[in-house]
Amino acid sequence: MSLIERTFQLRERGTSVRTEVLAGLTTFLTMAYIVLVNPSILGSTGMPVAGVAAATCLAAGVGCLLMGLIANYPIALAPGMGLNAYFAFTVVKGMGVPWQTALGLVFISGVLFIVLTVAGVRQLIVSAIPRALFSAIAAGVGLFIAFIGLRGAGLVVANPATIVGLGNIHSSTVALALLGLAILSGLTVLRVKGAIFIGIVATAVLGWLLGLAQWAPQPYSLDQMTGTALKLDIPAALGIGGKGFGLSLLEILFVFLFVDLFDNVGTLVAVSKKAGLVQPDGTIPRLNRILFADATATIVGSFAGTSTVVSYIESASGVSAGGRTGLTAVVTGLMFLATLFVAPWAQVIPAAATAPALVLVGGMMMAPLVEIDWEDPVVAIPAFLTLVMIPLTFSIANGLAVGVIAYALLKVVARRFEKADWLLFALAALFVTRFIYMAFEA
Q1: How far apart are CA 289 and CA 122, in angstroms?
Q2: What are residue 295's phi and psi, to 5 degrees?
Q3: What is the pTM of this model?
């Protein structure tokens, strides 16, 4: 029996090295867009784009290798869409936290992930939140991402009369973004492997050729690739504004924890079911190993210079191609590490070329809404509030808080609460305290 067979149990799962390699390449192509999109989002904070691109490749590569070798699952990891937007637009730009400090918070959250995983608390928290809110949060984050993309494309702009309005469709930025959206949508409809990544590159090239964007390559240097490496400021993260463990720190860590939890649980269930790896009783084998791989990758990402690392639903594309073991994730990880050497080229991609990808990815995140029982008001009302509050308040934390509070209150009104709901009510009380604090601060 070969080392690969012993490590990944290929025969037991009815697969082969060739199938797993092809599945890994398929997964990589499907999610390679993150190498270009993540730097575009985090770069808005002033972080060096080339450095973020390199950090993205490194964090994704290490995360995938850990998932494959430790947990033996065909699930790929990379900096999460939604959490990168929260990092950039809420934590750094909204709350005024320096990006170095925000990276320190990502590190602390990674350490907490490991501690809570070992203690079994992460699993307990997951069980306390209704699945309907999982779905609403995922879709709300999708709307959040899409809104950022539409704004970055210039399609949606501020309007003093109507709050928001249609942008100048005659501008070169909007024209290129619309062209990109058409290309990405067409490739997706045709089910082209790596449609988003190919579409971004094609849009950028057409933009340069048509004069809608400027070609401005930068010299390739190690300094650029390491522009965000080891820049995290852990001491500052432990005392934002000199207040020590204040509410701001706790809120950021709370959101990093919860959204990462929901991303992982949703992805794990979907991909594991598709791969036939879920037990008859609905449990997922080696769940702690999966969560450990995710937490460790987040810590690595914080040192390299990127936001929280999560499991990617695009892993389902590799499973559809036959991937059943961790070898699929290992191949995906090796591809990300190989991409590290071209990471500095990410900074030449115009924002108008990556904006359509945000819109499309956001749209794809609407799928979980069908899992919500819209006929049950106890479920539907909190889910709807969560869904709309995330993009309209530009905050995942606000959407999560309102949803949990509403769900807890409606369970009491409907007399549908049980002893097992104690953690749900504790979380709701915590969120109420947060809003009271915010009211007094204002």
Answers
A1: 13
A2: -65, -40
A3: 0.75
